[in-house]
Automatic annotation (TrEMBL):
Protein name as annotated: Tat (Twin-arginine translocation) pathway signal sequence
PROSITE patterns xrefs: PROKAR_LIPOPROTEIN, TAT
NCBIfam families in the record: TAT_signal_seq
UniProt-annotated stretches for the region Disordered: 96-126
C-alpha cells in the first residue's frame, strides 16, 4: 500500500486543478474585457443625432419650465411634486452631459417655452401631466435613433417620465 502525502509538495509547476480553473476563467475574462472596452467610434454621434440630442435637451428644458409654471399656479402641487421636478432637472443635466454640442444655456426653442404663462386649461396638474407625457413620447421616439449609452439614457428618461405621469394622476 502506497501512502500519498496529504498535501502535494509544491514544486513550482501548476497542478491539474489550477490549470483547469485557469483555462475556465480565460473565456470569462475575455468576455468581460470585451464588454467593458470601448471600440473607437462605438458611441459616436452623427451630425443629425447631435441635432436630435439638442432637441431632446430643449424638450426637457420645456418640461422643467412647465414644472415651475405649474408650481407657481398651484402651490399645493409644488408641495406634492417637488421630488418630480428635481428628477426632471436631474434628467436635464444628464441629457446636457450626453449632448456633445449643447451647453448649459437654454436654446432659442426652449427660452420661449420657459417663460411663465397662465395654464391654458386652468388646471395646472392636468397641463403638467400633458407636458410630462409629451416629453416622454418625444424621448421614447428619439431613443430609437441612437445606440449605446445615449439610447439607454433617452429610454430611461422616457420610462421615468411615464412614472411621473402616473404619480401626477
Amino acid at each position: 500500500m502506497s501512502t500519498r502525502p496529504a498535501h502535494p509538495a509544491t514544486t513550482g509547476t501548476p497542478t491539474r486543478r489550477s490549470f483547469l480553473v485557469g483555462v475556465g476563467v480565460l473565456p470569462v475574462l475575455a468576455v468581460v474585457s470585451a464588454c467593458t472596452g470601448t471600440a473607437p467610434g462605438a458611441d459616436a454621434v452623427t451630425p443629425a443625432q447631435v441635432d436630435r440630442l439638442a432637441g431632446q435637451v430643449a424638450v426637457q428644458q420645456q418640461l422643467v419650465a412647465a414644472y415651475a409654471t405649474a408650481f407657481a399656479a398651484a402651490p399645493e402641487l409644488a408641495t406634492a411634486a417637488t421630488d418630480l421636478a428635481d428628477q426632471a432637472q436631474a434628467q436635464l443635466d444628464r441629457l446636457r452631459d450626453a449632448a456633445p454640442s449643447v451647453t448649459g444655456s437654454p436654446t432659442a426653442a426652449s427660452s420661449t417655452a420657459a417663460s411663465p404663462s397662465a395654464s391654458p386649461s386652468g388646471a395646472p396638474r392636468a397641463d403638467l401631466r400633458a407636458q410630462v407625457a409629451a416629453a416622454a413620447d418625444s424621448h421614447a421616439t428619439a431613443c430609437l435613433e441612437f445606440t449605446g449609452a445615449r439610447a439607454a439614457l433617452l429610454g430611461s428618461i422616457a420610462a421615468g417620465l411615464r412614472g411621473q405621469d402616473g404619480l401626477l394622476a
